[in-house]
Amino acid sequence: MKTDGIFLAGVATCLPEPYTTRRAVAEGAYEEADREESGIESVPVAGETPGPDLAVRAARTALARSGHRPEDFGALLHSSVHFQGPDGWSAPHYVLRHTLDRPVTAVEVRQGCLGMLSALEMAACRLTAVPEHPAVLLTSGDNFSTPLVDRWRASKLFLLGDAGAAAVVSRRGGFARVLSVGSVSTPSMEELHRGGEPMFPPGPTVGRTLNLEERREYWRREWARGVPPPMGNFGDTVAAAARRSLAEAGVTMADITRVCHLGFSELPLAACFLDPLDIDEKRGIWEFTRTTGHLGAADPIAGPQHLWRTGQVGAGDLVMIIGASPGMEAGCAVVEITRSFDATDEEDGHA
């Protein structure tokens, strides 16, 4: 979707203290061979801090940086990957209460790791269609420190890090202008993430843990006995989403200064994102994500914030933000940095 007059006015992340992979190996939680292969140095671990509280902390900072007041907002869109709190309770309204505290809609976007990019597209649509309010607040927060997921062994593709993230999407202006945002899906690949696991009763209701490696192994066994896996290619879907967003923004890949991708481990990162986009690690953000791992839905905000606030991109630079989720679906946004970061931005309460 080509966008017009949509900006990122303030972004923020809440990253708990890093937990090194060497420490995890020393404590027997992780294997040394897997640590070396992943290339990941550390992930943030939040202890007993609830995911929604991580989102609230990030949101308060993003709001202060945006220059917007609570009455400017028409909606809050909250994304999450893991469980947020009591069953039958609304995490989005908890975040709303502790941030904007306004009688506006608060919606949870359950789009996996693509949540905040999907929410950005929804926010752009709302700001275009509903002129009464000039801003929408996007939030995300996850703490994977629960018995239902082993962050070190759940997947060979990534290590899970805890984080909160927030973005103020605005029609008034900001440090980055959104040129395009959208997604592409390959629904024939849906079964890859389901494997042989029954749909009912849902796994968590009977104490089944999240183990994506078991589901991958299921398809390896099926393939060995002559049953082909669902057809499709992760990288092709990522590349298709990128091509569409580039075309809608009216630019080419050669115009993109940096690419913000998910925090995958080194080899899967290359196979799923870098190679399909024909870029190397230096044009991506591996130097950052190797210290955070995969932050769930927070990755699409954590990456651009890191590049901008460390001065790695400045006014006039184009940044691609790309992610993916089970489905299989990939999303992409192209943004133009409109103002270089300056230390006085902190003092003035901007971005």
Automatic annotation (TrEMBL):
Region span, Disordered: 30-51
Domain Beta-ketoacyl-[acyl-carrier-protein] synthase III C-terminal residues, every copy: 246-337
Highest taxon, organism lineage: Bacteria
Pfam families on file: ACP_syn_III (PF08545), ACP_syn_III_C (PF08541)
Swiss-Prot/TrEMBL keywords: Acyltransferase, Cytoplasm, Transferase
CDD domains noted in UniProt: init_cond_enzymes
Beta-ketoacyl-[acyl-carrier-protein] synthase III N-terminal domain segment(s): 108-179
InterPro entries: ACP_syn_III_C, ACP_syn_III_N, Thiolase-like
Matches recorded under PANTHER family: 3-OXOACYL-[ACYL-CARRIER-PROTEIN] SYNTHASE 3, BETA-KETOACYL-[ACYL-CARRIER-PROTEIN] SYNTHASE III
Full protein name: Ketoacyl-ACP synthase III family protein
